[in-house]
Amino acid sequence: MSAPGMSAPGPILALDTSTRSSVVALGHEAVLAVSVLAVQHRHGAHLLEQIDEVLAAAGVTLAELGGLAVGTGPGSFSGLRVGLATAKTVAYARGLPLVGIRSSDALRHAGGQPEAVVVLPAGAHDHYLSAPDADPVLVAPGELVAALAGRDAMAVDLPADVLGEGAASLGQAALAALPGALLALARSRLLAGDLDDVAELTPAYVALPRGVRRGAEDLGWSPDLR
Fold first, then answer.
1. 20 to 30 A from 187, CA-CA: which of 12, 23, 121, 179?
2. Does the global pTM surpass 0.85?
């Protein structure tokens, strides 16, 4: 969707709840404030407090924001719902432009690994695999190495024994730099007027939790690969 760019030269508020960390960043040409918490699957218990924290740290109010950005996954089902709902509510209530940033793209940008395949945990045993310029896929236990097909991997929220120390180190570095990457990607899109529709922006769900019914009339847009 193309539209006029940022409504004001104010800072951007960026959220990402796709991983086991809850990430909130505020900035524009430079990062003004950041809050990153290891929350596992309890994003909803911390996200609003983190937003208040970064706004207070930078001396900025919601009325002074120039736009919002939110990570769209792939990743945690409950985390993505919390992040998208929060960002969309603020954008709608304040009349602010909103952009959804694919979290795997932001992680590659953060880690300086544009060709890496981002690998994240999916439930207790499966994995999400997100390659550049491709839809994310769900990989069953025992099939991860074959699915990577020799490509470089960035393992996020995964121990070193899954894909090796190198992949785990890349993932840790990318998570550390994720706030700045989200803001950089968001700023580029907001200034260009490449905005998302608040009503239509949805997470990149790859698989729904077991027991969640998927039908054409309720969650037909979500690619459940189980």
1. 121
2. yes
